[in-house]
Amino acid sequence: MEKAYLSGETALHLIPQGTFAENIRCCGAGVPAFYTPTGLNTLYAEGKLPTKYDSNGNVLKYNEAREVRTFNGKEYLLEEAFPTADFAWIKAWKADKMGNCVFKGTSYNYNRIMANAARITIVEAEEIVELGELPAESIHLPGLNVNRLFKGKKWGKIEVLHNDDDSKESKEKSVRDVIAQRAAKEFVPGSSCNLGVGMPVLASDYASKDGRHVYVQSENAIIGVGGYPKRGEKQSDWINAGKETIVPIPGASTFGSDVAFGQIRGGHLDMTVLGALECSQYGDVANYMIPGKMVKGMGGAMDLVANREATKIMVVQTHCDKHGNPKIKAKCDLPLTGSRCVHMIITELACFDVDHEKGLTLRDHNPNTSIEEIKSKTGCDFKVAEGCGPWKV
């Protein structure tokens, strides 16, 4: 898809994942539009995000700009609900002959809201049971929304299989390990966190080893993400947002993706940790595309940085790119994921606190570097906190 989009073979409309979920939910609920803080002050909101290129890489079309309105002193974007779909194809764990469905593990995700937003919903169930065998209070999708039902023959595809013994701890720490170990010190025991793929998850692993256990929430609708399964015990119905197999911790709960993003936008999480392509001195962050070269899509990141007042936003990234250029700058050059939203930046060299008006303050740094080296590799000025010194991990 990325290659076809950049070469002009197809058009592509990038939508924040939480907005996507709400587009679907509102469609099925008869709500024509809604306001959201997600994407504010980005190219997505301004109508400057390319949706179609020609074969030479020139932009032919952009997305539509969003209307902005202020409520209680805060700005929001107006988003329209999707039109009703002709078909929804839903995968269920169990269904009764009335069409009532139960989803297993993290497979709840978009299933319920998609079924509600289509004229005809087709359900593939692993098991079809008689009426009354499923307790009424356990039903995730009412049969009212189901038009066709059949028993599947093949399922259980696993895209990213990880076992708890896949990675052995190395004596020599990589750059990723250095960043993750320092980031782990910011995890507050008992708090709720959403983690991006890669270094954020690694930071959580280090935090757990230090006894700082947190409740990990994932956009695919679970809170209580645990580690990887033991070899031979994987289940395709239990994955994280990176499609990796996981084991839920005792006390975990699953729900729909619309609920997951309500938790995120509503500021119900204590912290979110994500990677970045670059950050600015005032807490702008860019992490989803390099125009004309690379498009990952924003996924749920725009939602995750949308409520800076309620949720601490921490970025973990290398200090410089592969060419040696600073990734912490006076101003971001790449399309923003969020504007003035990041509270802390941690690299292999340094930990910065971010003031959205005054800029960066160096809190502490890698014992193997110096403030002079950090200054030479940072693309903006920063203050040095009183008592700043080598970190201890």
From TrEMBL:
One of its GO terms (molecular function) is succinyl-CoA:3-oxo-acid CoA-transferase activity. The keyword Chloroplast does not apply. It comes from the Eukaryota. Coiled coil: none annotated. Keywords: Transferase. InterPro entries: 3-oxoacid_CoA-transf_B, CoA_trans_fam_I, NagB/RpiA_transferase-like. It holds the Pfam family CoA_trans. PANTHER family: KETOACID-COENZYME A TRANSFERASE (PTHR13707), SUCCINYL-COA:3-KETOACID-COENZYME A TRANSFERASE (PTHR13707:SF23). NCBIfam families: pcaJ_scoB_fam. This is Succinyl-CoA:3-ketoacid-coenzyme A transferase. It comes from Zasmidium cellare ATCC 36951. The lineage of its organism: Eukaryota, Fungi, Dikarya, Ascomycota, Pezizomycotina.
